[in-house]
């Protein structure tokens, strides 16, 4: 199976190629891909700014603080890609990171509206095969159904990976 790039702005968001597994019966595993463990070397950590009062009842300020600490700890060592709803949120987060002395060179913001912060549930899942210079990276775009339709207001997050392509 040939992996084809899907982004016209590939270099802007550093997304690898997408497996066209939705159009074939060949699985990523059959092609030699696997999902690396969270502690393995990776190019970036993807986060979505927390804001959902259902997920974080009466705790949004505390959770924002934890996200700021997380970004501050990661940014000296790797790229952090943060989804924010709008320019106002982006400015607020950048101001708070600057106040902590965080070097923003490794922090990249993407203005994409999300319903919830759990990007690992709905965002691109990166997979790889091979090692070193022969290492290939791709991603899968699984359907996110908000835990079987349990949280209908979160179902719109299924479109986040598609929005990242633009």
Structure, described:
The chain is of the alpha/beta class. It has one domain: L-arginine/glycine Amidinotransferase, Chain A. It is built from six helices and six strands, in the order H-E-E-H-E-H-E-H-E-E-H-H. The strands form two sheets. A three-stranded mixed beta sheet has the order 1-6-5, with no helix packed on it. Strands 2-3-4 form a three-stranded parallel beta sheet. The longest helix has 15 residues, at 60-74. The chain is globular, with a radius of gyration of 17 Å. The model is unreliable at 1-15 (pLDDT under 50).
Outline of this structure?
The chain is an alpha/beta fold and 166 residues long. It has helices at 10-13, 60-74, 87-99, 119-122, 146-149, 160-165, and strands at 17-18, 44-48, 79-84, 107-111, 125-129, 136-140.
Secondary structure: elements and pairs:
Elements: H1 10-13, E1 17-18, E2 44-48, H2 60-74, E3 79-84, H3 87-99, E4 107-111, H4 119-122, E5 125-129, E6 136-140, H5 146-149, H6 160-165
Parallel strand pairs: 1-6, 2-3, 3-4
Antiparallel strand pairs: 5-6
What is the CATH top level name? Answer: Alpha Beta
Intertermini distance: 24 Å
**Sheet bearing the most strands, described?**
3 strands, mixed
What name goes with the CATH superfamily?
Answer: L-arginine/glycine Amidinotransferase, Chain A
Number of domains: 1
Low-confidence stretches: 1-15
Strand content: 15-25%
What value does the Rg take, in angstroms? 17 Å
Order of helices and strands: HEEHEHEHEEHH
CATH topology (fold) name: L-arginine/glycine Amidinotransferase, Chain A
Helix content: 25-40%
Please name the CATH architecture: 5-stranded Propeller
Shape: globular
| Count of extended strands | 6
Strand order of the largest sheet: 1-6-5
């Amino acid at each position: 199976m040939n992996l084809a790039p899907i982004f016209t702005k590939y270099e802007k968001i550093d997304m690898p190629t997408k497996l066209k597994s939705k159009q074939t019966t060949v699985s990523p595993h059959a092609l030699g891909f696997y999902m690396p463990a969270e502690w393995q070397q990776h190019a970036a950590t993807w986060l979505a700014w927390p804001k959902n009062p259902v997920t974080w009842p009466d705790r949004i300020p505390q959770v924002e603080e934890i996200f700021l600490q997380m970004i501050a700890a990661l940014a000296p060592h790797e790229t952090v890609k943060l989804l924010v709803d709008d320019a106002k949120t982006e400015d607020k987060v950048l101001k708070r990171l600057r106040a902590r002395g965080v070097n923003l060179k490794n922090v990249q913001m993407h203005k994409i509206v999300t319903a919830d912060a759990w990007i690992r549930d709905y965002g691109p899942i990166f997979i790889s095969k091979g090692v070193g210079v022969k290492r290939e990276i791709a991603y899968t775009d699984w359907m996110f159904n908000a835990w079987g339709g349990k949280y209908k207001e979160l179902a719109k997050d299924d479109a986040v990976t598609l929005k990242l392509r633009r």
